[in-house]
Amino acid sequence: MIDIDKIRKDFPILSRKVNGKPLVYFDNAATSQTPQQVIDVIVDYYQNYNANIHRGVHSLSQEATDAYEEAREKIRAHFNVKHKEEIIFTAGTTHGINLVANGFSSLIKKGDEVLVSALEHHSNIVPWQMLCERTGAKLKVIPMTQEGELDKLAFAELFTEKTKLVFVNHVSNALGTINPIKEIIAKAKEVGAAVLLDGAQAAPHIKADVQVLDVDFYVVSAHKMCGPTGVGILYGKKDWLEKLPPYQGGGEMIDQVTFEKTTYAGLPHKFEAGTPNICGGIAFGVALDYMNEIGFDKIAAYEHELLVYGTQELLKIEGLRIYGTSAEKTAVISFNIEGLHPYDIGTIVDKLGVAVRTGHHCAQPIMDYYKIPGTVRASFSFYNTKEEIDVLVESVKKAKMMLS
Amino acid sequence: MESIKNIQEEIVDEFSMFEDWMQRYEYMIDLGKSLPLIDESHKIEENLIKGCQSKVWLNAELNDDKVVFTADSDAIITKGIVAILIRSFTNQKPQAIIDADTHFIDEIGLKEHLSPTRANGLVSMVKQIKMYALAYQAKLN
């Protein structure tokens, strides 16, 4: 079991009030909160060793470089990446996806097919649409079912020798469904297609081993896993990263520059143009330490308990429907109440101190599938409690009473 | 004809009777529920203002020298605020609408609903009201 009282004390924000009520933070799928350990390292960086990395001979620059590279090593170990240079620091998941989509422009041609799933976040749809527009490749969609799962019957047929790339989120942000990534990767291998997994929603709950998965690309954001915003990583197999052209030009990513020709630096620097989010990268490493110290197995078990409890309690409210009822899901409950608009429910529960997300969650195709304008999404983290779920349930009941 | 300023002061007075947010919101929800805001035939794509969170439909017509607004929303709290805004701006001369502001929304404690980042369609609705007033003003001259 995890020591919930001790954990909650690590997060200063959890003791604040919102609209005069104790904060109940259930918008963890949008961004997670930050423990004091991570806040401390951010302060320490700016107080003691703020300097640009990889280029100064002075001591401060060396300290910052060492700390940044140490973070890369922690991330490597966490995801069981084979080579450290296969970890590219990015500004976040969206940046990582765009980097790959842009790179594939020169590797994809007309007639090729690109597969995405119906459960994607807009950030894992739009870059591929843009890629297809640039190259003339065809975008195909793996359909979903009423349960909010990918349609396994349909998806086998979609993989053909024309399929060159497959993009799926490991976990759906809107519904919490854990996708059958092993099967998808296996199918893709059969036809020789590359696979990119959007791990933004999975990484806070599931420790992915990229070598066991044998996945080509995996992208995550630090701010969903107790780290700061504006930093994330792209994991890519070395062979792919060497094949892809650089995404942005600038300092740090070059080997030799003349006006006639520039030769690029090796991995990972080829993809890390400009001064990166140094402090963010270091803090990301500390956030991973923090979560690993608690243990991902324990985190997953505890969050599952919250999911089961929350599902059971919310379903007691008459007229409440949960979207995404897969047996395989993270602690996300996306719901509506018959006859009520999610925006209204979200507004009232906020007045009662409960932070939930409302709307289409940047996943309009899912909302179109269910023919709804959006949902109310409560997403739990390991620092949440059953008592907080009780507050959510009471708040939703109150909203229902006021709005009906 | 009552001036926009007077109407807005009336609304502020009404809201000042409430002791807490819950009463304010209950009143607003009632306003949203009770007003037949727009003719179904006007709930069309051209009149739709898309917000990320909720939708607003706004229709405007010129009646002699005054602009008559009708509107609706798919979310009831948004609709309540729509009702308040319509009450304040409808049946007024274009120039009066152009000159008016929406500070009264802050005074009645609903400021967050008129935030540009709220994406509920209300900020765009106020802009659209002003645009209609400008267009009709040009037409009248």
Automatic annotation (TrEMBL), chain A:
<comment type="similarity">
    <text>Belongs to the class-V pyridoxal-phosphate-dependent aminotransferase family. Csd subfamily.</text>
</comment>
<keyword id="KW-0663">Pyridoxal phosphate</keyword>
<dbReference type="InterPro" id="IPR015422">
    <property type="entry name" value="PyrdxlP-dep_Trfase_small"/>
</dbReference>
<dbReference type="InterPro" id="IPR015424">
    <property type="entry name" value="PyrdxlP-dep_Trfase"/>
</dbReference>
<dbReference type="InterPro" id="IPR015421">
    <property type="entry name" value="PyrdxlP-dep_Trfase_major"/>
</dbReference>
<dbReference type="GO" id="GO:0031071">
    <property type="term" value="F:cysteine desulfurase activity"/>
</dbReference>
<protein>
    <recommendedName>
        <fullName>Cysteine desulfurase</fullName>
        <ecNumber>2.8.1.7</ecNumber>
    </recommendedName>
</protein>
<dbReference type="InterPro" id="IPR016454">
    <property type="entry name" value="Cysteine_dSase"/>
</dbReference>
<dbReference type="Pfam" id="PF00266">
    <property type="entry name" value="Aminotran_5"/>
</dbReference>
<comment type="function">
    <text>Catalyzes the removal of elemental sulfur and selenium atoms from L-cysteine, L-cystine, L-selenocysteine, and L-selenocystine to produce L-alanine.</text>
</comment>
<dbReference type="InterPro" id="IPR010970">
    <property type="entry name" value="Cys_dSase_SufS"/>
</dbReference>
<dbReference type="InterPro" id="IPR020578">
    <property type="entry name" value="Aminotrans_V_PyrdxlP_BS"/>
</dbReference>
<keyword id="KW-0808">Transferase</keyword>
<dbReference type="InterPro" id="IPR000192">
    <property type="entry name" value="Aminotrans_V_dom"/>
</dbReference>
<feature type="domain" description="Aminotransferase class V">
    <location>
        <begin position="24"/>
        <end position="392"/>
    </location>
</feature>
